[in-house]
Amino acid sequence: MGARIVVLGAGFGGLELATILSERLGDDANVTLIDEGEAFVFGYSKLDVMFGRVTPAEIRLPYGAFAKPGVRLLRETITAIDPESRRVTTDAGVHEADVLVVALGADYDFEATPGLADANEFYSVDGAERLRDLLPTFTGGRAIVGVCGAPFKCPPAPSEAALLLHDYLSERGIRDDCEISLVMPFSTPVPPSPGTSAALLDAFAEREIEFVPGRRVSSLDPDRKVAVLDDRTELPYDLFLGVPRHRAPQVVLASGLVEDGYVPVESRTLRTRFPGVYAVGDVATVGVPKAGVFSEGAARIVAESLVAQDGRQPPGYEGKGSCYVEFGAGRIGRVDVDFLSGPEPTGTFQEPSRELVVEKQEFGASRRARWFDR
Ligand SMILES: Cc1cc2nc3c(=O)[nH]c(=O)nc-3n(C[C@H](O)[C@H](O)[C@H](O)COP(=O)(O)OP(=O)(O)OC[C@H]3O[C@@H](n4cnc5c(N)ncnc54)[C@H](O)[C@@H]3O)c2cc1C
Q: Which of 131, 165, 295 to mutate to test the pocket of ligand 1 (most atoms within 8 A of CB)?
């Protein structure tokens, strides 16, 4: 048996890491993968749930279907992490690790935005489901897609939500009775890619979606139906679609691994300052956005370095990835970003097309097949 590898969190990062180690080491992998959830869900599926394209049951990929040689997937809640001794406590017992990989993602901090708990968000499956039921009752007035803080997962997602909301209201024949505003803490929709930002700003202008840059929603007054921005501007709303503030999961915050909100790592190797402890994905500060493709890419580097023979380490993590961007009207664009290999992040934009709709479907299908044999 090789080193005991304990992977915390079976999201994009944890699933990919465990899959590679199983492929490379087979029954000798000795991986324990721990997650408290019942199923994996692609982040972008929440938009599909909100607009009624799919049901929550259809998007869940149950962990019971993840069966890989050399990997035990345990359904347990992690209650403590000691990075010094690499000991993990869960509601079911204690796990000792030779190598510990923290891939616990980012949680939502609803309390950080007063009033948000009484408004609506679309970043969780439950929130998206509530909005799916609420949207048909909206008959006119101002809708705000509002981001409550940065960093947040998948920077293009609020722009996608605004564009898809436009389609939804148009299909119902009430778009002329509605205004849509998008509040975003960045100066452009996708800062590392001027091409993507320009295309999104054009799409907003064509559809009369108001873009409010450089601002975040700091509180909501659901009685007065007003969103208060961080410069104290008040925006009245009839419908609020929120992106909650994010933070590292509580168990990570309490572990001593965190600085400035997330787990700092050496970007090239994903190592933390504790020997034998790595962090990948949304839980870490790597210098890349919080998105599944980056969690996956980081997981690959950790896996390669764990299986490396004769001290031959893989090349460093380059922070490259492609994100699909829904433009509405059945078209999807793509942004190919590179965060770490050059002096500045760069992003190349692929125009929205129907071909990219098929490519995004293939992206999901390939992960379903790879991780869940479906
Ligand atoms: C609306 C929306 C659209 C998105 N669109 C895209 C997209 O198009 N492309 C893209 O790449 N990304 C997209 N994302 C982002 C993507 O979903 C996340 O960035 C990605 O899931 C992060 O992967 P991860 O492995 O770091 O963490 P996660 O996938 O969040 O996994 C973390 C896991 O840890 C588990 N966990 C947490 N705490 C505990 C605990 N105490 N005990 C046990 N288990 C625990 C959780 O149950 C979870 O399964 C989108 C996100 C949203 C919300």
A: 295
